[in-house]
Design a protein that fits this description.
Layout: E1 7-13, H1 20-32, E2 38-44, H2 51-61, E3 65-70, H3 76-86, E4 91-94, H4 105-114, E5 119-127, H5 132-148, E6 157-164, H6 165-172, H7 181-188, E7 192-199, H8 211-225, H9 228-257, H10 265-298, E8 305-309, H11 331-335
Parallel strand pairs: 1-2, 1-4, 2-3, 5-7
Antiparallel strand pairs: 3-8, 4-6, 5-6
Helix pairs in contact: 9-10
The structure holds uridine-5'-diphosphate and magnesium ion.
């Protein structure tokens, strides 16, 4: 590992062969303007096209470009995690491969880092070329997350950000499986600030975040950073039981003071089905959290690396690099 690397760019990609040549050229210019040595850590997240070969070719010619290839597609958040595990810079900048996070904006992030901020989030002021649906759903989601979550996750902030090496170490010590990095970065603390930018369109290729993956990420955010659904289940349960008790009292009074008792077949069915619906809902919510416990308990490594260029000591399998073994451990084992 190069002890003098000042800046690391961490860039995950999956099937981005159209945009990677553009990106690497832009990065050349960007790195030439920096005030220190820089490296680019590319993470191939199981591409099936020519992307990895393109980057590998560049990496063989130019030592600043590095690549690790994951053994399959593990998803964007895990790919970024793998990159953070290998980045050796004093400041690490995470960005997308499609040039929606313009390298030039990174100069502004760096300026803030030099003022002493340890996490600089890039916040989207405008989103060009995104569908109405994506803008609206994103807006709604960020609002909801801010309300529900127990940590302050800044709005309209994706994964484009600069983090200090200390923060990278903090993230490496967080072994959770269902990774929602923007929440994790908010959670670790340190001195944080925002820099605004206008998010341009993707420069080539198409989005790798279809609705299904977006929903999954959204759900990870809510479940990992809030216990609101559980609390909601509790309140809902309490409310319904209270309702049922009141209704019971009402029936009881009918039995005592009137003779119109046994015509209530319909209401019995209604109450019964309402209660079983409530039961299902609440066990579903609990199930979601239990599912999380199950994946955490399995203690699988987050990813495997099949190949790398330009990086030494890559974490391929859990036991290969002792000082980073904590990446794969629970906090309990780390003390035991
Ligand atoms: N990506 C990845 N693995 C995946 C999906 C996406 O590494 O499973 C990368 C993708 O190549 C890009 C970044 O994550 O560099 C952001 O994806 P994309 O631009 O498709 O998302 P969007 O900007 O549409 O939300
Ligand atoms: Mg994009």
């Amino acid at each position: 590992m190069n002890a003098t690397t000042k800046y690391s760019l961490v860039i995950p990609f999956m099937n981005e062969e159209e945009v990677l040549p553009l990106l690497m050229d832009r990065l050349d210019g960007f790195m030439a303007d920096l005030d220190g040595a820089a490296e680019v850590v590319f993470i191939d997240d199981g591409s099936r096209d020519n992307s990895a070969a393109l980057v590998a070719e560049r990496a063989r010619q130019d030592g600043r470009f590095k690549i690790i290839r994951l053994s399959r597609n593990f998803g964007h958040q895990i790919a970024v995690t793998a990159g953070l595990n290998e980045a050796s810079g004093d400041a690490v900048i995470i960005m997308d491969a499609d040039l929606q996070d313009p390298p030039e904006v990174a100069h502004d992030l760096i300026a803030k880092w030099q003022e002493g901020y340890e996490i600089v989030h890039a916040q989207r002021r405008r989103r060009d070329g995104e569908t109405m649906f994506k803008k609206m759903s994103a807006n709604l989601y960020y609002r909801m997350l801010a309300k529900l979550s127990s940590v302050d996750i800044p709005r309209d902030v994706g994964d484009f950000r600069l983090v200090d090496a200390r923060v990278v170490r903090a993230i490496r010590a967080m072994p959770e499986r269902d990774r929602f990095l923007r929440g994790m970065f908010a959670w670790v603390g340190f001195r944080q600030c925002l820099v605004q930018f206008d998010r341009p369109e993707r420069q080539a290729g198409e989005t790798k975040y279809p609705l299904k993956k977006m929903l999954r990420l959204a759900m990870d955010g809510v479940i990992s950073f809030s216990d609101a659904p559980l609390r909601m289940a509790l309140w809902l349960g309490a409310l319904v039981s209270l309702g049922a008790m009141l209704y019971g009292a009402y029936i009881f009074s009918l039995a005592l003071f009137t003779d119109r008792l046994v015509d209530g077949w319909a209401s019995t069915i209604v109450i019964l089905s309402f209660l079983s619906g409530m039961n299902l809902l609440i066990s579903g919510v609990i199930g979601l959290f239990v599912g999380r416990i199950y994946t955490e308990a399995k203690q699988r490594p987050l990813y495997f690396v099949s190949e790398s260029i330009g990086l030494t000591d890559v974490v391929r399998l859990p036991d290969q690099r002792p000082e980073t073994r904590h990446v794969f451990r629970t906090p309990y084992q780390a003390h035991g």
